[in-house]
Amino acid sequence: MSLEDVSPTDHQRRAFRRDLLDWYDDSKRSMPWRATDDPYRIWVSEIMLQQTRVDTVRDYYPHFLEAFPTVEALAAAERDEVLKHWEGLGFYARARHLHEAAQTVVDEHDGVVPDTMDAIRDLKGIGPYTAAAVLSIAYGKPHAVLDGNVTRVLTRVFAVEEDATTTTAQRELRRLANDLLEPERPGDFNQAMMELGALVCTPSTPLCDRCALQDVCRAHDAGTEEDYPITPESEPVPHHDIAVGLVFDDDRLLIQRRPDEGLLGGLWEFPGGKQEEGETLETACRRELMEELGVEVAIDDHFYTLSHAYSHFKITLHAFRCHVVDGPPEAREGQPFQWVDVGALDDYAFPRANRRLIEELERRQTEPSLFDGPSTESSP
Is residue 100 annotated as a catalytic residue, yes or no? Predict the structure, then answer.
């Protein structure tokens, strides 16, 4: 069915809302962010839940709020402190934008998270989904959310025969979600839709016999649940070999901070970069250190290799122990650098792959014989 042809009747809307909310009231999971009506804490949870597993957020959420219990506390914090508490959660632009938006809330809204669509959308890092989630859950405003889970539920219930990723389809799906929304319980309705998609209407082998909407689901009636949503074929996941230098000066290591914008922005890292075609890994390491910090290094030995997967690509990271033979380092791209004792590296926020190197450095410090040879390990 085309989305333009989807127009539920009053009876269908009432049945959809009733069955969904009855199921949610009986089956919803206990979550710490469901035990508060504080808009700030709900906002933090929604930012964390973007592209991140619920179980992961459940671990990070209380610790983050212990460090920053109010929007004023978050706004007053140093950015490096915020990134350190976000370390390991991924998609670090979320943390930078949340921090900046908290400062805006304090400076321009007297510390109160805005309760209108226009005002909340003006905050850094808040798009249509997050705005609708916060407004509906925290303030009871009738705005439907549309994420991957909701898209999957709607396209299956209405057997939508078009690419669900197009701008037109997303606009029509949002219209449909708002049409079905229970205006008396918008926050619960939105959470119920997402919960159903996460627990029952799953991407593969959906649990249709447990679904509150099975009686109205056209895809289930036809036995074609897994045909929806219709999406373009996935592109192959690219892979890159990355060479980094563990540049030692006695017991200190050279680290630098990544640019604020872009992947892993604002985090600290060991300097290095992608291997280019025709280069050896050692050559790539030396070239990157010259380009980034203006130092010529000699490579002492290969220290460690690990594999890591990001959301859209994979890397194999090769770390080499080095020392400077012509320097000193300078911030050629304007990014700060520091010499840091190995024992003090835990004070800085690093990407997960670099964190694995730090753990190996610390392990070898306690067992000096381990420095005699390289290691290889995979990181999930």
Answer: no
